[in-house]
Design a protein that fits this description.
Order of helices and strands: HHHHH
Low-confidence stretches: none
Strand content: under 5%
Helix content: 40-55%
Amino acid sequence: MLPPVGRREPERSEGDRSTTGGNTTAHPDPEVVAQAKRRRFTGEYKQRILAAVDQAKGSGGVGALLRREGLYSSLLATWRRERDAGVLQALAPQKRGPKSKRDPLTEENQQLRRETLRLTEELRKAEIVIDIQKKVATLLGRPILTSEPEEKR
């Protein structure tokens, strides 16, 4: 027997069938939503977009460009301000968060001072061990001869 001739419904995906096909049981969506990530724009990209916006003035060209690129007009205002300030580095993406108050030279200086103190202490301990070895050798009748006395600091 032939199927009845008439209007056929278009094929639906499994997700569409479960929500509309008379099945009233709600199933949670098993798809994991990706975590949103903040976009970072390079200075070159910002300059290219600003040049395109300057060319697209009038007849809705700017709006179409913004929609196509997924940008907001407030970004254009910020980027124009940065460009007008004449600082190319201002167009480069900035690191978020508070600025570090530490001076890298001061940190390196402190690290080197700590290492110097540690090495000085190790040298002091080594000199004590050597001195004890000399005294033990002298007591045993086998003195250790040194060519030149070392300077003490």
